[in-house]
Amino acid sequence: MSRIRNIAVGLPVREGHVLALRGSDPARGIEFYRAIGGGIEFGETAEEALRREFREELGCDLDSVELLTVTQNIFTYDARPGHEIAHVFLVSSAYLDAVPLGATLAILDEGSPVEWVPIDALRGGERPLFPEGLVELL
Fold first, then answer.
1. Structurally, what CATH architecture does the domain formed by 5-137 represent?
2. Would 20 disulfide with which of 33, 82, 93, 130, CB 3.0-4.6 Å?
3. Cα separation, 53 vs 43, whole angstroms
């Protein structure tokens, strides 16, 4: 990646858990969680992008969104450098609230697992939540 990517990500929170995508970086040999969302397209606001991404990735509409912060995420994934400006939102959805805490969903267009993760487990640092700094917001 040779350019800065603007993204919008959402944090659905319920009963001390946050819904996040489970991933891994084979080059570094780590497992992690990532906030759900994706790129902001030209002519689209961060909120519009977030709502579109949740529809595309989980097939659900968001009932409410609240901007928490905008942060930079400079990282390495699969041995390649990346740089994102992340618009981070607290989100709610009746659809997601009906998903049991022990259930695993899948990202519709790629199959990555999504699950409710106890926020306290993220504070322990066993598996980080990206972009960095989100655990402190929760």
1. Alpha-Beta Complex (3.90)
2. 33
3. 15
- Alpha carbon 41 to its chain's center: 17
Q: Is the pTM of this model over 0.85?
A: yes
Residue pLDDT, tens place only, 77-114:
888 888 999 999 999 999 999 999 999 999 998 889 99
* HEC profile of 88-112: EEEEECHHHHCCCCCCEEECCCCCC
Q: Could you check whether the bond before residue 131 is cis, i.e. omega within 30 degrees of 0? A: yes
Dihedral class, residue 59 (left if φ above 0, else alpha if ψ from -120 to 50, else beta): left
Euclidean distance between the first and final Cα of the chain, in Å? 29
Amino acid (1-letter code) at residue 57: E
The label of the residue with tokens 């993204």 reads 7
Contacts of 40 (CB under 8 A, 6+ apart): 6, 7, 8, 46, 49, 87
What's the whole-number mean pLDDT along residues 30-58?
96
Domain boundaries, the chain: 5-137
Q: What is the DSSP letter of 43?
A: T
